Amino acid sequence: MKGKVILECFSWTAASVLMFAAGIQLAFLSPLTVLAAPVPFLLFTCRAGIKAALPGALLGTFVVFFAMGEVAAFMYVCEFAVLGLVTGFLMLRAKSGADYFLSAVAASVAVKLFLIGVFHYAAGFNPFMISPEAAESFVSSLSGTLSQGGVAVSPESLRGYAADMVATVSILMPSMIILFAACDTAAGYVAARLYARRDGSVSVPELPPFSSWRFPKNIFWALLAALVLDMLSKAMPDDQLYKMLSLNMMEVLRGVFLIEGLSLAWYFMTAYRVNGAVKCVAACFGLFFAPVSYVLSMVGVFDIWYDLRRRIKLRGK
To answer: Sorting pLDDT into bands at 50, 70 and 90, what band is 123?
Structure first.
């Protein structure tokens, strides 16, 4: 049995290191690998416990250190090793899916803040911040694509778009960290649920059906605080603190309202027996297509206040 655990440790560690290497070497895979970064050690911790997973995390860190250097090893140990171990431990101890999500998001935010703090102290930059050069390169590549389609963009406009992108990312960094922590927590939870279907030894805390998700009404106090901060930012435009706080609070709340709206849409699609694949496609469309996501956010606000599931009568119900 011990030999089997050692073999699994090597396997999960190899998967984690390969994911990290793929994200470093292949730029288009970076968002996916970072999103799923904690998954290998999360699953192994759920299977064998944190004591068995810890040597694998150390081994993976040493491999990355000798192959890619100390900076890469530090990023690996934070986002891939430590976060995977912590989220796996939390999944073993959580009494419900909601408890797991809250604690795992808090752990993910803490790890990212620690990573940012160390990089800022040691090198003077934020690893999650887009540089002006990277923003200009991205806008230039997008401009090249548009030019092929007959849409011309001037160099001055390119520089303006790049500067706006850097400024936006800079001011919305706190909300981006929180939302990204929620995304990698959700990715880990979904991966654990799928793995638990084929391995009965993995226990995953249950969440209620997505169609029944509802946030409490006291979230409107946070919305009120964001609106007050927005008014203060307009009254005192020279003080950027109020603007930053209001924008970040509104961005996080918009994410909450969007999830509420998607849950309501999922409820109605389930009630009318819409095919599961169609529901997933519709949810992804609503999540990533800006006009629809805006409408769903507004619907989410009304649903939290009025409970539209209870008020709207369905056919056949």
So the answer is: low
